[in-house]
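Example 3.2
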Amino acid sequence: MQSAPTATHGTPIDYRWLAAASLLLSLWLIALDPLLNRDAIIYLRTAETYLREGFVASQQLFGRPLLSILFATVHQLTGIPLVYAGLLVNSLFYALLCVGFVATLHTLGGDRRVQLFGAIVILSHPVLNEHRSSIMRDPAYLAMLVLALREMLLYTRNPRPLHQLRWLGCALLAALFRFEGVFFALLAPLSLLLCSDLPHRVRHCLRMLLPQLFAMGLVAAGLVLYQGTLQPGARLFPGIGLYIDQLSGFPARFGATASASAEAMLEFTAREDASIALLAALMAILLLNICRALTWPWVITLFWGWRARLLTRLRRDDHRVLLAHLAISLAYLAAFTLINRFMLERYAIHLVVFLLFYLAFILNALWQSGGRRALRQWVVAALLVGMSLDTLHNRDQEKAFMRDAAEWLVANAPPGSTLASNEQYLAYFSGLSVDWREAGHRGFDLRAMLASPEFWRNQDYLAMRVRREDRDAWEAFLHDNALRETAVFDGGRHGRVSVVALDQRRVE
């Protein structure tokens, strides 16, 4: 890695077309998607609660209500429905993420070709685009994380208070969107200790870190004081308490899981190594999901570029700051996997975004390298075109049956009717009265709901998503209670939605 360049080289591309391309892509994928994501329902309900009852009530419903407050505010200012306000906010944060990503590439010394490759990479990434038609916190969190990284890089070049304040703001906003942002807010300043070209590294590290600690201390003190004004049993930001509870109970849970795994799978002295085997299995799951999140073509490209040493254009200090952010991401994901004993590729996306910075430089090095240059350019072009075409279609069309079922309920159920459903999408978009608390206590689980006659007997309608594994239980329920399906919406391999108009005289 070079240590020479201390300033950004080259001309930035026009970010306006990049933002426009991101917004158009979001619009396209929203138009293709027949179904809003499940998490969106809790954000929409939180926004409604905020509009009706204020911040505290919204926070009690969902511990991190910032996103919901944002599109509730957009709804107030524009009058557009909450659903579309949420999709608009989601799309704007995606555009900000794309612009911030390419701007950071420029800060890293990327010329216009590197920036162009980076723009295509971030616009076409499948795991990112999978949620463009959703309402979720991830794009806002990632946008703030990338912008914070850029300010950190700028600070290493010119340690001005402006970059410090911008980094502080972006880091705190990232932490407000997702709890894992706290780890970056507290640990990212330590990356300055690795910067050989930055004089007085310890002092600069403390300059970046102490305001974060002070701000978080004030927030914590405010929460403690405000907690006393809440009703007995209520917790301000219960999600944080959940994280703490999970962390404190980790050793016992991990030991119990290792013992159960040993009893189920291992024999004789192999049981002594159950903890090591469980640890290895969980880390393998983590690695697999990181690769899936990155996508296998980019995994191969990054590995090859690393082996071929194609990253020589990166400044040494930039490389170290990036590696520090990757290390923080990996440490958090490892801790999450160990504590929760699972991992999803979506959760690894913040680590993937940091890896994509390297990818843009590797693609550029491949494009302009020597021997067989034309062939390498064809490979780069094929990869970029292939990834771009892959993102222009939607794989959720088969789930349109869920939307059709919700529309049937809107059209056929009398206003004021009550509904029980194991799908939050159906419960919310039916427009019917739903006992969210009781449904949540049963985990929106079909079998748990059917096993509670006191819950479903008093409803006017049942709208149940019946998956293949639940068909026998559902058919037995209908038979035992002399009920018939009023409408059925078939989703093939995704199951079906069965609507039952309950005749109270027959089920009492």
